[in-house]
Write a structure and sequence with these properties.
Layout lengths: L18 E6 L5 E2 L14 E5 L6 H9 L31 E3 L1 H7 L5 E5 L9 H15 L3 E5 L3 H13 L2 E7 L4 H8 L4 E5 L3 H12 L7 E3 L5 H6 L2 H10 L7 E5 L4 H15 L9 E7 L4 H8 L24 H10 L3 E5 L1 H15 L5 H15 L9 E5 L7 H4 L13 H6 L4
Parallel strand pairs: 5-13, 6-7, 6-9, 7-8, 10-11, 10-13, 11-12
Antiparallel strand pairs: 1-2, 1-3, 4-5
Helix pairs in contact: 2-12, 3-4, 4-5, 8-9, 9-11, 10-11, 12-13
The chain binds pyridoxal-5'-phosphate and zinc ion.
Length: 428
């Protein structure tokens, strides 16, 4: 299998809708659509470029609004065939945008605070969005086995999507993940392999496997299909704007693992502006990390352009990537938009999980605790403007990381089944 692009690839038989090719994010070199991810000229990462629909924005908006209640309403803006909604997939997306008034009061936010709640996806994390794109690319390129290196949620999303779409799957995770993530990755019946090491070791192993005959014919959603996979995060931007009434948010807080999601939300917002679907106005993007894995935050604060790798040690395991591939692009975006990257401690993550549950009835995983914790910290520091619209992205479900809150959460009392016993418990 090819791992480096060549200009002679033929895209004649590949139908990925409006996707017209790949382009190097470093040198701009163009390549035909194919299962490639690194530039032949400079080894820079590749990304999908499009012939997006022109014409009347009002017509496009109507077309989107009359589409299905999932990410395929945005199919004209994604690297997928036009009939994608008819193929077997999990139909993720169009998750709820919750107006968080209780939380806003708690924070003193007056401009409107929203939680984009991606725990409502089929496997309860935002990863269903990206896997849905990768599956279409895998179909187009003739792969029969789907794989990935995962911090947990991706493994479950690949397992489920592969089961439904009729692919074989074999996914790789660090061996010491939370039980909720392991069970959810295994239950769909594919192969699940624990690697003795952290995510960065898992990722290195997968890169080796791609170059080996043992990995022949395998589509690694976040490696050789990464350019397509990554585009799925644009749908978060589309949905947030549509759900705000076709308007850009002023401020948006996004967690960072590899940084892919953050960079593609920015790309999605810019596309909507370019297509005339939303009015062009400034927006600021903020990135969130856990202190125990904060390579991008450290670089941001130090004013560096390069991200120095770290060895992760945090309860936010789904964000525990010590050497984030998109780190430098995240720095660019947060600086260009006037945002910031910040980190919080494990204790602040737990507090934020419980705060969101207590104020809005939303139970998030440790990644969401990280994002909300950072939002709180930046509001208190006056970096996020309380008078402007703010959207916090919740990327996963608290049921997968019960261990984080179990030690400090429990029953108010255990009583015998009679009224006297209840009165004695002091709850009335
Ligand atoms: C994977 C993941 C992220 C971030 O992913 P990126 O690699 O930065 O795109 C955020 N939250 C959760 C819950 C995740 O599983
Ligand atoms: Zn290049």
């Amino acid at each position: 299998m090819q791992t480096v692009a060549t200009t002679s690839d033929s895209a004649d038989t590949v139908d990925l809708g409006p996707a017209s090719g790949l382009s190097c994010r470093e040198c701009g070199e163009r390549f035909a659509l194919g299962p490639i991810f690194a530039c032949e000229a400079c080894f820079g990462p590749l990304e999908v470029v499009y012939d997006l629909p022109g014409g009347d924005p009002e017509e496009l908006r109507k077309r989107i609004e009359s589409g299905p209640d999932n990410i395929w309403r945005y199919a004209p803006l994604l690297p997928v065939p036009a009939d994608v909604a008819d193929k077997p997939n999990l139909n993720p997306g169009f998750t709820r945008l919750v107006r968080a008034d209780n939380l806003a009061r708690e924070f003193g936010v007056t401009g409107g605070l929203w939680v984009k709640d991606d725990s409502g996806n089929p496997t309860h994390s935002f990863k269903d969005r990206v896997v849905a794109q990768a599956i279409e690319a895998a179909r187009a390129f003739g792969f029969t086995t789907l794989s990935c290196s995962s911090t947990g949620n991706l493994a479950g999303a690949v397992g489920a999507a592969a089961a439904r779409a009729g692919f074989r799957s074999c996914v790789f995770i660090p061996h010491d993940l939370e039980q909720g993530k392991v069970v959810m990755a295994a239950v769909y019946g594919g192969e699940l392999v624990g690697i003795e090491g952290n995510y960065d070791d898992v990722n290195r192993f997968c890169s080796e496997l791609i170059g080996d005959p043992a990995g022949e014919g395998w589509g690694f959603v976040n490696v050789n299909l990464r350019p397509y996979y990554a585009e799925g995060s644009k749908t978060l931007a589309y949905e947030i704007c549509e759900q705000l009434g076709w308007r850009l948010p002023d401020q948006i807080v996004i967690p960072i693992a590899s940084g892919s999601q953050l960079t593609k939300i920015d790309k999605g917002l810019q596309e909507l502006v370019g297509l005339g679907l939303v009015e062009d106005r400034p927006y600021r993007i903020f990135g969130a990390q856990a202190e125990g894995c904060s390579p991008v935050s450290a670089a941001f604060k130090a004013g560096h352009d390069v991200v120095r790798p770290q060895k992760p040690d945090t309860i936010a395991k789904s964000l525990a990537i010590g050497n984030p591939a998109d780190g430098p692009y995240v720095l660019d975006i947060c600086r260009r938009t006037g945002g910031a990257v910040e980190d919080v401690t494990d204790e602040e993550i737990v507090d934020a999980i419980k705060l969101l549950a207590r104020t809005e009835g939303i139970f998030t995983e440790t990644a969401g605790g990280t994002t909300l914790g950072v939002a709180k910290k930046l509001i208190e520091a006056g970096v996020i403007d309380p008078a402007l619209t703010t959207v916090v992205v919740n990327t996963g479900d608290g049921l997968k990381t019960l261990d984080a809150v179990a030690p400090t959460t429990g029953m108010s009392a255990v009583i015998r089944p009679n009224l006297d016993s209840f009165r004695e418990a002091g709850l009335v």
